[in-house]
Amino acid sequence: MSKSRWFSGRRGRSADINVIDPGLQRSVRRRAMIAFWIAAIPVGLAVCSVVSAHHNMFLAWIIGTLVGFAAGVLVGLAVLVWPVVRVIWHWLPELALAAGIPVGLNELATVMWPPYAVACFAALVVGVLAFPRTRRAVVSSAWCVISRHRLRVCFSGFLAGNRDGSLPLILWARPTPVGERVWIWLRPGLSHSMLQDRVVQIAVTCWSNEVTVQRASNTYAGFLRFDIKRRNTLTGVVASPLVEDIPDAPKREITTQVTGDITALDLPDVPETAVTPEPATKAARKPATRPEPAKAPVPAVVGADGTDVSDWL
Questions:
Q1: What is the predicted pLDDT for the residue at 290?
Q2: I want to staple 40 with a disulfide (CB 3.0 to 4.6 A). Which of 68, 96, 152, 193 is the partner?
Q3: Whether residue 40 has pLDDT greater than 70
């Protein structure tokens, strides 16, 4: 009997559902083996040299080998389970919520009748969503979780630049007045400039209006900050406390009544001469006359006979 098409690949092979990419699994196993030998050999030699100073050489080699093997296993196991830890970190809010709800219901069921426990839990959920402030907090937190997953989709879809298949580490996210802010640690193969060239595609994948990418540290180039913008807060009305400090101005009563429909004003029907003011004629101003400076008196010239001869000069 042939296998169903739901469990067969494109060429008839069985489809495997892997949480971790097979290429990444091979790379992780290789790195785990390298980490095992790098940790086991130095630790074993160090322990052997210390023990040989107080005991015989054979016992020192045995103790050094056992301690080095244990250290290598611990380091190799840490490298081997790191991809699984990454997956748990990416799904940590969902896992915590999935584990917290049954535990909370179980604790309530120990102190009251189980139907009452379910009713109390439902009332708690309805009460949290009923108030606007708590509802906004819950919705903002939910969008932070969604943004982390959408960014992971971006890196696994069209931003993967590492040949080993290791994706960047999405650290944490917090809500902002315009959306969410996510911090990311890049792995080798990606850079800030590469992400800036794909901000439009990232915005489409994150279901947002705009995405900006900036460096979050002046020391480490791989520590980036993603600002996911979903709304524009500049269009809202912000209440200012300065309005309360303004004294109340006296109100003037309207004494004139406006008759007619002021909304039906048709400016083309108004003749141009009725609104064009006549040019005002200004009286010509005469220039002010300046007084002539007084002339200095000319001294009189007296002749030999005593007569004034200044008019003859």
A1: 64
A2: 68
A3: yes
- Is residue 7 predicted with pLDDT exceeding 80? no
**Look-up of token digits 């209440």:** 239
What tokens were used for 60? 């020192």
- Distance, CA of 307 to CA of 211 (rounded, Å): 111
Q: At 155, is the pLDDT very low, low, confident or very high (cuts 50, 70, 90)?
A: confident
Q: Which residue has the tokens 């074993």?
A: 44
Q: Return the structure tokens found at 51.
A: 């023990």
Confidence of residue 160 (pLDDT cuts 50, 70, 90): low
| Residue carrying structure tokens 């009923």 | 130
**Any idea which of 239-243, 282-286, 294-298 has the lowest mean pLDDT?**
282-286
Quick one: fold of 138-232?
Threonyl-tRNA Synthetase; Chain A, domain 2 (3.30.980)
146 has pLDDT over 90: yes
Strand order from edge to edge, sheet including 179-185: 169-176, 179-185, 223-229, 210-215
- The Cβ of residue 89 has, within 10 Å, a number of other Cβ atoms equal to 14
| HEC assignment per residue over the chain | CCCCHHHECCCCCECCCCCCCHHHHHHHHHHHHHHHHHHHHHHHHHHHHHHHCCCCHHHHHHHHHHHHHHHHHHHHHHHHHHHHHHHHHHCHHHHHHHHHHHHHHHHHHCCCCHHHHHHHHHHHHHHHHHCHHHHHHHHHHHHHHHHHHHHHHHHHHCCCCCCCCCCCEEEEEEEECCEEEEEEECCCCCCHHHHHCCHHHHHHHCCCCEEEEEECCCCCCCEEEEEEECCCHHHCCCCCHHHHHCCCCCCCCCCCCCCCCHHHCCHHHCCHHHHCCCCCCCCCCCCCCCCCCCCCCCCCCECCCCCECHHHC
Each domain of the chain, given as residue ranges in start order, spans 18-90, 91-130, 138-232
